[in-house]
Amino acid sequence: MEANGNNNNGNNNNDNLFLQTLIEEPKAKKIKKKHDRCVFQSVQFALAIVRNPFPASPHFGKWLAVNETKGRGWWVPGGCVERGETFQQTCHRECLEEANMQIQLKGVLKVDHSVSGDVCRMRVIYYCEPTSVQEANNFKTMADAESLEARWVSINELLVLASGNPGLRGRELLNWATYLENNGHVMPLDMFGEEGELQPIGSRSAPLPQQASQQQQQQAQQQQAQQQQAQAQQQQAQREAQQQAQREARREAQQQAQQRAQREAQQQAQREAQQQAQQQLEQAQQQAQQQAQQLQQQRAQRQQQQAQQLQQAQQQLEQARQQQAQQLQQQAQQLQQQTQQLQPTQLQPTPFQPKGIVGNGGNNNLYQQQAVTANDPYGDTTGVSSAPAPSSFTPEQTQFMEWANAKRKELKYEAV
């Protein structure tokens, strides 16, 4: 800062001395001298060092870099002065062609002039700014024949580009950006004009000697105020950028938390669904087991009931057989008792017994009546009279004779 101020003071003092010599010294007589004159081939260039001064832009405080075609690397907007153009017109045209941006010239940084043989090379380097925030944000992003792209970069980002591929075409942007960020001096546009153009004494571009110190102080104060305002704007922009970054980080964290909560809820729902399915499966298995047990119990009960019924039927059959046997035994006993009660004279002869065995002729007639009545195939009625049987038999005798006839038919033998 002090060195720049001293240099500016020295330059202003020289300008003041030059102006005083113009006022005080009379015109000297021209002395004709012989010189070797030649016609130079002049090649002229205009370069633009463009900075973003708008705090509302997300690229506030950065420098405009252009990626040149044919792999030449990153450089500043600029090019050769075409026929009929001025340096300022060339600077405007190159910024529009290579960066798609309208700019305004703020001052002159340097004028380069070099001679090599018959070729004279001259470069004017301007300090420029975009005309508006919209222009600052509307830089080139699509490649064309003039350039591949344009980009706002800081010094650190420019160093990163320098170490990459394709790198930097030249160090002009890096050098001048570093110079200006360290409060470098920018010369006015009026100091570079056409030949014969003379500023009157007392104008803003050429102040009087007695007004120089006051004007320098005012300019220094204005520059200091502008720098402070720019720093405040830059700090405000940085704070806003930090706050925006924090808000975005919080928003991303909230989104991540929501996504994590959703994933956890989905996993919980899946686990609950699996548990419900497992419980339903276990319940179904338990129901199937219970049904199988019930079927087994029912089958066992049916088998037990069938066995009990069979056993009861067998017992009933056995009882019926026993009762029948008892009845037969009782009947046999009764028959035996009845047989014992009967007298021999009351017995009827069989067909094989001779008739003379029985002395009572009435009994013979009784036998014959029984044989005819029962249709005995073994009965023999030869020599037997057909006189009716007497009716002097008791009911028991009659029952016995019927039973004897039935037995004789069944067993096919005669019972006595």
Question: How would you characterize the overall build of this protein?
Answer:
The structure is a single chain. By secondary structure, the protein is of the alpha+beta class. 54% of the residues lie in helices and 13% in strands. The protein is built from 8 helices and 7 strands. It has helices at 2-24, 87-99, 133-137, 155-163, 172-181, 209-341, 361-374, 395-411; strands at residues 41-50, 63-68, 73-75, 78-80, 103-116, 119-130, 149-153. A 4-stranded mixed sheet has the order 4-1-6-5, sandwiched between helices. It is rod-shaped. It starts with a helix and ends in a 5-residue tail after the last helix. Mean pLDDT is 78; it is low at 1-12, 21-25, 200-212 and 351-391.
Brief digest:
This protein is of the alpha+beta class. Helix content is 54%, strand content 13%.
What's the total count of β strands?
7
Give the CA-CA distance, first to last residue.
Answer: 170 Å
Q: Largest sheet, order of strands side by side?
A: 4-1-6-5
Unreliable stretches, pLDDT < 50, 5 or more residues? 1-12, 21-25, 200-212, 351-391
Largest sheet: 4 strands, mixed
C-alpha geometry = rod-shaped
Order of helices and strands: HEEEEHEEHEHHHHH
Count of individual helical segments = 8
- Strand content is 5-15%
* Helix percent band: 40-55%
Question: Mean pLDDT, nearest integer?
Answer: 78
| Radius of gyration of CA atoms, rounded to a whole number | 73 Å
Helix-strand makeup class: alpha+beta
